[in-house]
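Dear colleagues,

For the upcoming journal club I promised to circulate an example of a predicted protein-ligand complex. I picked one with zinc ion because it came up in last month's discussion. The inputs are reproduced below in full, followed by the predicted structure.
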Amino acid sequence: MSDKQTKIMILGADAPIVPRVQKYVAEGDMPNLKRLIDAGVFAQNCLVPFPTITPPNWATIATGAWPGTHGVTCFHTHKPGTALDDVAPAFDSSYVKAEFLWEAAARAGKRSIVLNYPTSWPPRGGDLLTQVAGPGLAPNEWREHPRRVSAWDTAADLCAAQLFAEEEYPRSSVVEPAKPGAWAAAPDGAIAEYELKLTFPSALHIMEPVTWWGLVCATAQGPRLSVYPSKESTSPICTLAIGEWSPKVLWQFMSEDGPRRGVFKFKLLELEADGSGLKLFLTPICALDGYHHPAGVSEELAGLDPMPLSTFGVDELLLEWVDDATFVDLLWEAHNWLAAAADALMAGRPWDLFVMHVHAPDWMYHGWSTRLDPQTEPDPRVRARFEILERELHRAWDALLGKVLAHADDDTLVAVVSDHGAKATGRHVPIGKILQNAGLLVVEQTPEGGRVVWEKTRAIAQRSCYIYINREGRDPAGIVSDEDYEATRDAVLDALHAYRDPDLGTNPFSMICRREDARPLGIYGECAGDIVFAVRGEFDSQHGNHLPSTTWGIGDLHALLVLYGPGFLRGSVMQRTAWITDLVPTLCYLAEFPMPHEAEGAILWQSLQSPDEKIDELRKLRRNYRRLKQAHDSSTALTHSYHDLAAEALESADNRAEAPASPEVS
Ligand SMILES: [Zn+2]
């Protein structure tokens, strides 16, 4: 029994594939995670709630509650009573109707640091909480924002990356070389100039236009590109050789809401000796303010060397804006910023709970899990290329773990946990077509595309795994009466059961059920659809509408769960089924934190060195108390023999005060 205060560290990673993690651990790429596994508990069969998707499952990890209880039931949320195609990203913390672990911790006066945790913004946890990021999946990424035009629209603060290139790439800014014009002080050897208009793609705030200028000079070592803020300027923002990154640049931009400071880097990817053929990459311009609680925390992090990137380059690689080496640089930059931020936050303030999330595996597997799996990518050279990038990601993630774990002492419980796994893309299941063919959904073609004819539509698919009945009295354009509700649900069930994939001849569904039958998976309440379905691993995308036990090819949707620290078994593989709902109750039990009000998971007794330790402790305390009381009583009996009249007078006064108020109650 010790009076030391136990601390908790929860280190989340989004969508790692457990067997791939084990492979990289075994091959020596993840020494820090290996140390935790070797000296802790590895949960062999950890499951997550359904659907296997990001916002609900991070909300579950932080609350210990099932999605039906905390109310976040998919990547998007649908407010009952609004149009059935009206959904919004489920990232705002107000959607989570359950207490976060850091709110429970604050009830006991414990201090928390929360870093880049989905569903946690705006911050909840009062003065004892320090929070950085959370409106999206990476710092400066915003999912719910005032200028959102579609459900999947994301914003970046200050903006996303930009490519200036003479050759055309998707979404790039095409630039043309020109003879150097009227420069105030063009250096010797200037051979070409480029107008570089910043377009501020996906900007969270409307930004005032900015035009910079590139000037190419011929040198004995090859062409050099200098970027100037104007042709009048004599000092360039940076000067680059081919293949070179600029230093990090801090710059003030103007937005509709006033000045905003941001950091960025350029990389010169291509340039011909004659000054033509420019390919210049500009990283996201990363805001230094606006995602900190309390706001002053931004000053503590503003000087960090890495940049808080809103992305780490998966899209940019797939668009062929950047090469593999540049992608790897961005990957490390993103992880290094998280590590530096964690280090600065934990070094700078007392804390009892540290919680963070890193998103890289999810974006990477969405980008190319299909190129990694022999089932979907026959060319071994392609697989080898993407495996190099996958390995690099695991190294960067492990290095981040190492830097964070430097703050864990002998009294810190550590959990490494994920929200789901991932797999390669399978065959598409056309839910809309199935409903249309059954006459349940009616769509008419318009010049703008398909339009749902609500007055004839009885059922429609929504989000990853739900079908809604267009119900009178509940839905704005409802046509199905209460009397027809069950028959309509049966018609949907029949249509899904009858469907066969045209090429495979198999039914793609691993589960089809009514809403009330989905409770065993944690789905219930008004935020769930009327029908819930899941598809088999060989169908649909990387995760989401697949059961948490799904495996397919190299893919696996089980969660990663590693538990380490005082009280946990050492070097143990836990075979029992664990759920990520169990994490918070287990940690709260061991560290003696208050349990979040809505937590529903169980304590993972099989992960503990002494499952009965707390009961033994309680027995020991009771025994010691009894002995102390006996000793006290006997010593008091001795002193009474002195007939201390003053003490006896006080005692009799106390007895009168404690007498029952009404004599009949006895
Ligand atoms: Zn996720």
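Two points we might discuss: Residues 7-82+90-155+290-425+554-607 form a domain with the Alkaline Phosphatase, subunit A fold (CATH 3.40.720.10). The pocket of zinc ion is lined by residues 14-15, 54, 362, 419-420 (CB under 6 Å).

See you all on Thursday,
B. R.
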